[in-house]
């Protein structure tokens, strides 16, 4: 009796958990590169390091040390749509025109250094979040320009919204001119080289600057090229051509400057997201049904037959 009492006295109180708050959208990686978990919703928790076991009768009252590890926290934005485009395509202008965000706009590349999220509001109070990300440049997958810093945010968006200048663009005097069609292929290639799965996200193509002279003609040309992209891309340098082509669910011409096409774009965004939601909930429903079927034991016909062949006892 006395011994038991002293053991109880030796057992100290349990140590408190050390909990560190982190913003939603954090991805946790251990120093060996293993993903420990993600915090995607308010209130979610991830166990990063286990505490040691205290001293007990089994361990001869020698406590073991808890886990110690270096971890990396990566913040990835969660938005419904992520804007993907080269600098100067008009991404920030588009976000300003669509939402109440106030990103920096200027006619020189790399005005957007930090991602910015804008909310697109609908008359029935539905909101859609759009992330304006620093412009991609060729070679971003190799960490050129804003590189990975930018691309990691696209991982978390539900859909992609490509923005191209209908008249094409030239990043600098010493870099080649790229047509809108080439821009689409180059953007696709950059995403593919970074993470191929990104291209499985639904994508909308916004053709901006439709107020410029000859825009209509150029838009027609681009639409034609996109319809025949497999054949036409053979004429492009090999390093510009992605392995698989993106087939945009919608191609919407707009002018962020004059507002042309923006109400239609807003409607398209909503339609596209709702379609995806419906598809996902249907997929979820089917998965649940299959799970249930697996759980319910299947009674084979013979078993039924054998049971039925026995005389029923009504007493
Ligand atoms: N003519 C015209 N210029 C535009 C339009 N949208 C953006 N711009 C101009 O293009 C330049 C780059 O715009 P910005 O929104 O900063 O592009 P970002 O680098 O893609 O974010 C700015 O000078 C804008 O005023 C448009 O629809 N028409
Ligand atoms: Mg910008």
TrEMBL record:
Keywords assigned by UniProt? GTP-binding, Nucleotide-binding, Nucleus, Ribosome biogenesis
GO biological process terms held by the UniProt record: ribosome biogenesis
The record's CDD domains line, in alphabetical order, gives: Obg
User: Where in or outside the cell?
Assistant: Nucleus, Nucleolus
> Could you state one GO cellular component term attached to this entry?
mitochondrion
InterPro entries the UniProt entry points to: G_OBG (IPR031167), GTP-bd (IPR006073), GTP-bd_Obg/CgtA (IPR014100), GTP1_OBG_dom (IPR006169), GTP1_OBG_dom_sf (IPR036726), OBG_GTPase (IPR045086), P-loop_NTPase (IPR027417), Small_GTP-bd (IPR005225)
Family designation: Belongs to the TRAFAC class OBG-HflX-like GTPase superfamily. OBG GTPase family.
Protein name, UniProt field: GTP-binding protein 10
Organism of origin is Silurus meridionalis (Southern catfish)
List the lineage, top down. Answer: Eukaryota, Metazoa, Chordata, Craniata, Vertebrata
């Amino acid at each position: 009796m006395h011994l038991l009492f002293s053991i109880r006295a030796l057992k100290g109180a349990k140590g408190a958990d050390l909990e560190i708050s982190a913003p939603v959208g954090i991805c946790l990686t251990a120093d060996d590169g293993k993903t420990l978990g993600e915090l995607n919703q308010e209130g979610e928790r991830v166990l990063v390091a286990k505490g040691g076991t205290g001293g007990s009768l089994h361990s001869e009252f020698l406590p073991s040390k808890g886990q110690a590890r270096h971890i990396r926290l990566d913040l990835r934005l969660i938005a419904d749509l992520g804007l993907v485009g080269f600098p100067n395509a008009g991404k920030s202008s588009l976000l300003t025109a669509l939402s109440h965000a106030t990103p920096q706009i200027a006619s020189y590349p790399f005005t957007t250094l930090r991602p910015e999220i804008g909310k697109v509001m609908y008359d029935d109070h539905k909101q859609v979040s759009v992330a304006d990300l620093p412009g991609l440049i060729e070679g971003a997958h190799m960490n050129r320009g804003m590189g990975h810093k930018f691309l990691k945010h696209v991982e978390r968006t539900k859909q992609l919204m490509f923005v191209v200048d209908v008249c094409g663009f030239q990043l600098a005097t010493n870099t080649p001119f790229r047509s809108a069609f080439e821009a689409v292929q180059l953007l696709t290639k950059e995403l593919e080289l970074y993470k191929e799965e990104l291209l499985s996200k639904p994508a909308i193509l916004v053709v901006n600057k439709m107020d410029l002279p000859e825009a209509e003609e150029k838009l027609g040309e681009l639409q034609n090229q996109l319809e025949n992209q497999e054949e036409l891309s053979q004429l492009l340098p090999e390093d510009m051509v992605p392995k698989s082509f993106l087939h945009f669910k919608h191609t919407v011409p707009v002018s962020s400057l004059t507002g042309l096409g923006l109400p239609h774009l807003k409607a398209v965004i909503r339609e596209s997201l709702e379609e995806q939601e419906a598809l996902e909930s249907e997929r979820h429903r089917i998965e649940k049904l299959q799970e249930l079927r697996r759980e319910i034991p299947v009674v084979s016909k013979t078993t039924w037959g054998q049971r039925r062949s026995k005389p029923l006892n009504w007493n």
